[in-house]
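Structure tokens please, single chain.
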Amino acid sequence: MNQQVLPPRKPNGGLITMPFIIANEAFEKVASYGLLPNMIFYLMRVYNMGVTRATNIIFFWSAATNFMPLIGAFVADSFLGRYLTIGIGSIASLLGMILLWLTAMISKASPPPCNQLTHNCKSASPAQYTLLIFSFGLMSVGAGGIRPCSLAFGADQLDKRDNPNNDRVLESFFSWYYASAAISVLIALTGIVYIQDHVGWKVGFGVPALLMFASALLFFLASSLYVKQKASKSLFTGFAQVLVVAYKNRKLALPLYNSSRYHREKGSEFTVPTDKLRFLNKACVIKNPEDISTSGVVSNRWNICTIEQVEELKALIRVIPMWSTGIMVSINISQSSFPLLQASSMNRHITPSFEIPAGSFGMFTIITITIWVVLYDRVIIPLASKLIGKKVHLDVKLRMGIGIFFSSMAMVVSGIVEHVRRRKAIDQGLLNNPQAVVNMSAMWLIPQNILSGLAEAFNAIGQTEFYYSEFPKSMSSIASSLFGVGMAIANLLASVVLSSVDNVTRSQGKESWVSSNINKGHYEYYYWLLAIMTFINLIYFLVCSWAYGSCVNKVAKTSNEENGLEEEKSSVPGTPHRVLLS
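Here you go.
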């Protein structure tokens, strides 16, 4: 009896999975980014909150959304794997958006409407407030599951080391991934915001919920096609092990230049640990030879670590001062509520029948980032290299400093525009009517958005490149997470700054600088305070940059030149920057 031979099963992964993964990320971004711009209006007009409380809630929500990806990456690497983490994140985001949509659909889910000028507004009840915050929390959990894993999960499907075109396939995927991210944010800042402005909150929140449903559905539809790699040890666990073992061995004397006393991985470039942060070196000292087998396997990682683990933690600790200099820039980036209130009180008409939604002015920042990245990589650097006759590259730390300067200038210009807008509002008799539109074009807000875009293009991209160049390859996940952690801390500090300004400036019965009545407040003073803080931060950056010394790539270049080596000339100098809009 002839036995039928079945054809070999096609391996999982490949290009067939790309539409599902990219669509999952793209729809999630359109949905989540489409909710943020107008949220200040929703909290003030539907939940009857003042501008300070509403802005602080948005700060806390943004902080959670920026911090959760770090936890999501740890959970994916250590326990669940990327597939399950993305799946759970998609479901959490969907539930959060449905709950937010229900706050608009069910009248009793929010306080009754009122006019804030009458000061008779009823606040949200504990149950109503809990429902709102719970929806924000679920969306932050969802972002924590999707955003740190989506790019790496897509790379898992295509990373075939035996394929000679592997690098080209991965590059193509990264290009499509980042292009879809940028397009998604632009759609969110225009299409979703326009729907909320012209159709209302019920449809404006319903559309993101539908998009998130499509995102989750498309991801799970291709479940049988994915390569699902299992979870492995996380870097965070390795960091904890170094600290614990170093503390255990705190009374142990360090061996002097004896490489045999240090535990290292096979084929390691290290023979002994570096002299910086020497107290951590005790974590890799071989105290008891029985802890390591003849094949080099450690019986208990909480008793001895490798030199590589120690040096990874040192690299992280060493960049922390430089990382902290970007927090002030992130505080300025997070100031989305006040420009929105400014735009809503200005003439936003392009034609007599069409006006730009107040929440869409952030698109000028995204457009500026995109244009600058293309010009820098494809025009400025190649042209400068051709004129000078050798490869030109702006030092990464220089770019970070330029970004801080642009961020300070963005706050200065924001304050000037607001000063002029407020003066016009008072001259036109609108002091007590914050809802009125001042006879001043909202196009005056574009310069501050351009400066903010340049600040982000220089500093944010520079930060990410700095981390990738200074960290070993094993820490690439940490490098991609550090900027998000900085944004999370910046959101919390922005809330502290805002609350402090509000409490100090409204003492003795005075109107707060950040009053809910934009015409009575002094938003320009708040902007200029941020500008001064950013300028002080620039000085702090210069000190940290001097203390840090030369970057790894600069040291390597200098070493090559000293050995008489020349870099290979390239027709397209510079490394293309890629911006992940997270």
